[in-house]
Predict the 3D structure of the following.
Amino acid sequence: MRDAEEGSESPPSQMSGDGPGGSGGESESDRWMPDLRGGNGGGGGGGRWAPPDQVLENVLESVLEFLTAARDRNAASLVCRSWYRAEAQTRRELFIGNCYAVSPRRAVERFGGVRDVVLKGKPRFADFSLVPYGWGAYVSPWVAALGPAYPRLERICLKRMTVSNDDLALIAKSFPLFKELSLVCCEGFSTHGLAAIAEWCRYLRVLDLIEDYIDEEDELVDWISKFPESNTSLESLVFDCVSVPFNFEALEALVARSPALRRLRVNHHVPVEQLRSLMAKAPQLTHLGTGAFRSEPGPGGVLSVSELATSFAASRLLCLSGFRDVNPEYLPAIHPVCVNLTSLNFSFASLTAEELIPVIRNCARLRTFWVLDTVGDEGLRAVAETCSDLRELRVFPLNATEDSEGSVSDVGLQAISEGCHKLELILYFCQRMTNAAVIAMSKNCPDLVTFRLCIMGRHRPDRITGEPMDDGFGAIVMNCKKLTRLSVSGLLTDKAFAYIGKYGKLIKTLSVAFAGNTDMSLQFVFEGCTRLQKLEVRDSPFSDKGLLSGLSYFYNMRFLWMNSCKLTMRGCRDVAQQMPDLVVEVMKDHPDDEGEMETVDKLYLYRSLAGPRNDAPPFVNIL
Amino acid sequence: MEAAVGYVSVVDVDNLKATELRLGLPGTAEDHHNHLSSQKAMSSSVPSTPRGMKRAAAEDDDVVDADEDDEAAPPVAKAQVVGWPPVRSYRKSCFQAAAASKSKAVSNKDEASKNTTAPSPAAAAANGSLVKVSMDGAPYLRKIDLKMYKGYRELREALEVMFVCFSGADSAGANPSEFAITYQDKDGDLMLVGDVPFDMFTCTCKKLRIMKRSEATGLGSHPGK
């Protein structure tokens, strides 16, 4: 595969997360390509361009500072060479949707004044154990490059990256003005790394650890004690996923000397007695992760519900989460704040409808609600009756198996659609669904941007008519004109994908599992979904033919993932040969498998300016 | 040999039953003969949906158990697959821990306050890091403490040492690569050891099973291999 780093290359807009703004499938010859051989701001290059007007460039830079959206910046950078340079110097946030799409060196060479870096690593299906351990997405080379290049860097946000304690220590020491660290679904680090961040980042405002896998080493470090002893600048401290015990007294003291703290999410080791103490020390909190929300009596005895309610009444809380091992008797304590709540996360609390309803009846201003399916259709009906302003609903399954009982169904979905007309995002796990309910939602909730329905039983049809779920999803793409993200499930034929291709013009992310009959499904999607950036497919009967129907679209996408379909090495090699700026990774199903198999179990392909990566483990074969 | 026989007679038959992999809810009764007949049926059924070679043995095992085990509470129609439904392991493991501690609280009121305050993967590991290890064809099982091992390599080496005496029974030599190490996780799924970070594995592993590589990859149902 040709190394895409040297020589002429694809348009620079591909270096950031968004694809080219216009319609897909633009050919290379139509696109103006900047000549970067002179480097940033260099006066060299060909004689075709006039020397840069320095005054104009300064003015331009001032104007461009107002452009924040990556898409706008990408467009501006394509106007001409001086705009390209000006944009490169003024871009503050660097968004890299695939850490392997560009090399750190190249990113750092182009952009001069970055303050904020967002990096995403593993494909999303890694969350479901479909990507073997050790695949990659190491942040180390990035930290090594960012350190010298951006000493004034303030913010790093990593998603699905492998982050070691050494990486965290290097971040802590490289950026003296560092303010925000956000790690989402990352792994590889432990409390040692957290201690380094706490100790060295004196101006830290945000430390958000969200659904990371924290290494549980033998020797726990008391990282909370490592924060500065004077007043801190902390605004947000989220560590509910750090499941190991911590020094509570240190946290109390930290909270007391962090006057700017607005968000605090603790782990499940915090019972209500301790929670009350924290709330008293931080009355200005707006976001609270409540820990276990049950009693563990200390010397003061068992906390009464009314005492806890007093704490909530005195608070200014807008967002509640936690409830990790909730004792439902304590739920009434949150009633005083329900009327103000805009966000409520009960998704770790196994509540019945009876336990939910008294709480939710007070939450008229709720915009975001995460809940477990244990509340049943009845619980969802209560949500629909009260929360007319709801924008986001996520219903998770308590028993995430195909054959569990399942307590929510089409009835709940229909009820929600009838009560929550402003719904923008829905994630719904269920066992039984009907086309009628999905169609109803498509009509009642026209503002939907994200529709993710997971019918947990594979290939399950409409529970009443026995028909495939084609018409339901078809109605969603037809009626929800703002839809950008779609996850499908249930029994689906090619017809569903014909609908998606025909109407899903804004779809950027599509997730497919156990669906479709023939390769036509893939072809419909590739040809129809002109804004498609991320396609993830599993266990569907798509062969090389379907894969190859996407050839002219792959450069417009961030990635394609396919596992357990009917791909062969031949088809994947075809793609690799015809698309030099694509990295085609084929993964062995069994990490210890020897030799080459004809069938391909896992395919991950992505556009890249960096060429094949050099950190791939043995089970990854880069074609 | 005689020592082995003696060991078997001392070990309660129920022990062997308890280590058998099946799809029913924990605690439901099961027939002893399932264990023997399921081994026979390993090579028989062909997976009905087109998929790769992974976990084919898991499907066979579970499908057979579904047919023969009348007493498992929910009727099982299909075998479980990896990563489906798409719920993050992080979320799944929190529920398992919470559900375990809740049921303990219900059944044993005296200990409710002790057990239910810290339902976490860490606590679960502290309580249950001892797991049984079975090997196909071996007459008895072993038990190991997962916390003793720092990583997969150490675990593998320890298991090789433990079970080397059995591997000579059927095959020509004790070749480690002929065996695949699998485990049953909290959901009851049969998983291949090595996919997730080791610490996550130690939290979710309920029991280990060493199977012959040929059975793990479902030889006979996939012409490609």
